[in-house]
Structure formats: structure tokens, C-alpha cells
Amino acid sequence: MAARPGDQSAALLLACALALLLLALQPQPCGAQQQPPSPGYYPSATLRSLAFSEAYRTLWGPQHQTLSPDGKSLTLWMDRSSGSGFKSARAYRSGYFGASVRVQPGYTAGVNTAFYLSNSEEYPGHHDEVDMELLGTVPGEPYTLQTNVYVRGSGDGTIVGRETRFHLWFDPTADFHHYAIIWNPDQILFLVDDVPIRRYERKTEATFPDREMWAYGSIWDASDWATDGGRYRADYSYQPFVSRFADLKIGGCVADGAPGGCQPVPASPSGAAALSTQQEAAILWAQRNSMVYYYCQDSSRDHALYPEC
User: Fold this and answer.
1) CA 131 to centroid of chain Cα atoms
2) How far apart are CA 279 and CA 99, in angstroms?
3) Averaged pLDDT for residues 108-120
4) CB atoms within 10 A of CB 184
5) 223-257 burial code (b ≥16 CB/10 A, e <16)
6) When comparing pLDDT for 35 and 20, which is higher?
7) Of the listed 133, 201, 212, 280, which one is catalytic?
8) pLDDT tier at 157 (50, 70, 90 boundaries)?
9) What does pTM read for this prediction?
10) From edge to edge, which strands make up the β-sheet containing 241-254?
11) Cα separation of 166 and 145, whole Å?
């Protein structure tokens, strides 16, 4: 017996309602993720992009890097034989250090693409370091951005790291994004596309880096710990692993300059140490929506080693 028109209409409405419900229950792609609120302050816009030769030098693996024709972007790659890295030509006492980075999709477990500050060559075995590291992954899982601070040898021997990790609100393989560190005498601010994601304050002399540091970029094999604690390692059947650096920016107080002749790059629009209301809202959003690990909340750690917590 044929269905009546009223029954057909009801059935069609029910089918549409079920389809909409199923769509709502489906996981949303990365591109549909919520975006952070505007920080209202864009320090990267106050600095010009530098040619690589203006600020940096090749440190290792020269055969695993290529410079663009305009000299402003650098491609690094890692294979079974080597990774590659570069280092700023000068040391700094404070400043803004940024680079736009794009990493490779697919299987990249164990691969560490890093942009960081360090003085490990000047103070071997007793160095300071401030890290932003994009840790490779396996298909279907997001990259992890790890930020870290080592102070006076806490990254040497017995490791006392201060890691905070994020799953970003975008796909870092799809395009370039700007990763930056503002290191001033009173705090370190980590930013992604000018959005502050972590603030590390100077609370004691023993927990804050205050010696000169250089800026570095690199790609290297961190299979022992980078991806799920070392569960997944670099698989060189997928080599080469490629990372691209562009939009290199430095605005800092050089270590060999006159102590009073340079003002630190401000972390906020007012120039004060305190962040603006908009910046505070942005950092709170990042930590609520993107942060997946915070060392101060790790009960397995000896908190006597972390007085700042």
C-alpha cells in the first residue's frame, strides 16, 4: 500500500533530523577548531624580517640545508646520516627571537624541529636553554609543541626540565606559523602567531636564565623521548624529514653592547611587565584549550626541584 503524503513528509523530516544529529556528533577537522581571541598586541609586526646571513650562520649539517634565492628562508632536512642546524651570529642578553616554521606531514615520529635559545657551547655541562620544539607524530595524531626552560645545568646530567606542551589550534604542516620567544630580565613569554601561550616569570635567581644566549634552529632525531615518550621512533623509510624556516626576526640587546644602551623588547603594549587584559585572555584561552601537559601539575615529579611551582 502506498504511503500517504503526510507520512512521506514526516519520514523526510525525521531523516533530515537524524542526518543533522549525526553530523553534529562527528569530530570536527583541525581547520574547524576554535580560534584564540585577539591578543591586541603584535610584537612580530614591529620587527623586519632578516636575511639569513644578517643574523645567522650554519652550525652543523651544511649538506642538509638549502637557502632560498632571496636569502630569507632556509630548508633543513634530516635523514639517516644527519640532521642540520643554525645559530645566531651574536649572543644576546634579552630580546625578541622569532621564526615562521612549517613542518612535514605524515609519519614524523621522533623528529624534533626546534627554535630555541641556548649557551651550551659557552657553558658546557652547566648551560641555560629556552626551547620551542615541534615534536613529530604518527598519522592521525597532532604535532606537539613543547616549550621548556633549563637553568644553569638543569638540562645537563640529571635533567630538571620545565616542560609545557600544547596541541595547537591549527595544522602546523599546512602553512607557516610564527613561533617566538620574548626573553626579558623579568619574564620569558612564548608566543605563536603573536598569541601568548606561556609566561615563565623570574621568581628566584636560581630558576631564571640571565646569562647571554644565542638563538638556534635545528632538525634532529629525538626518538628516545619526542613522540609518546619514545614509543614511536624515527622511521627512515620515510626520509628525508623536512622543516622550513622563514621570516627570521631578532630584536635584542647584544651581549657585547653597552649594558645601559639597550631597552628590552616589551612583552605588552604598555611596555610594563604585566600583560594586557587582552593578552591575559589569550593566554588563558591557549592554556584551557590547547595545553596538554604542565610540569607543575605532574605528581610524579619531585616538586622540591621546582620552587616556582
Assistant:
1) 8
2) 20
3) 98
4) 20
5) beebbeeeebbbeeeeeebbbbbbbbbbbbbbbee
6) 35
7) 133
8) confident
9) 0.88
10) 65-67, 74-78, 241-254, 92-103, 177-184, 187-192, 195-201
11) 5
Q: Which three cell numbers stand for residue 298?
A: 605532574
Active site residue 133: yes
At residue 18, the pLDDT reads 45
Q: Is the peptide bond before 240 cis (omega within 30 degrees of 0)?
A: yes
DSSP class per residue in 139-189:
TTS--EEEEEEE-TTTTSSS-----EEE--SS-TTTS-EEEEEEEETTEEE
Which residues lie below 8 Å from residue 282, measured CB to CB, with a gap of 6+?
36, 37, 38, 39, 195, 196
118-141 CB burial, b ≥16 within 10 A, e <16: bbbeebeeebbbbbbbbbbbeeee
**Mean pLDDT, all residues of the chain:** 90
| Active-site residue identified among 129, 201, 280, 308 | 129
Kindly list the distances between the CA atom of residue 165 and the CA atoms of 5, 49, 145, 162, 259, in Å, as whole numbers in the listed order. 58, 27, 6, 10, 34
Q: Which residues contact 303 (CB under 8 A, 6 or more apart)?
A: 296, 309
- As separate numbers, helices (DSSP H) first and strands (DSSP E) second, the chain gives 3, 15
What is the full DSSP assignment across 250-298?
Answer: EEEEETTS-TTS-PPPPSSTTSSSSPPHHHHHHHHHHHHHTEEEEGGG-
**Amino acid symbol at 154:** S
- pLDDT tens-digit profile of 45-78? 999 999 999 999 999 999 999 999 999 999 999 9
Compute the distance between CA of residue 168 and CA of residue 217 in angstroms, rounded to an integer: 20
Active-site residue flag, 280? no
Give the residue from 218, 247, 214 showing the smallest Cα distance to 44.
Answer: 247
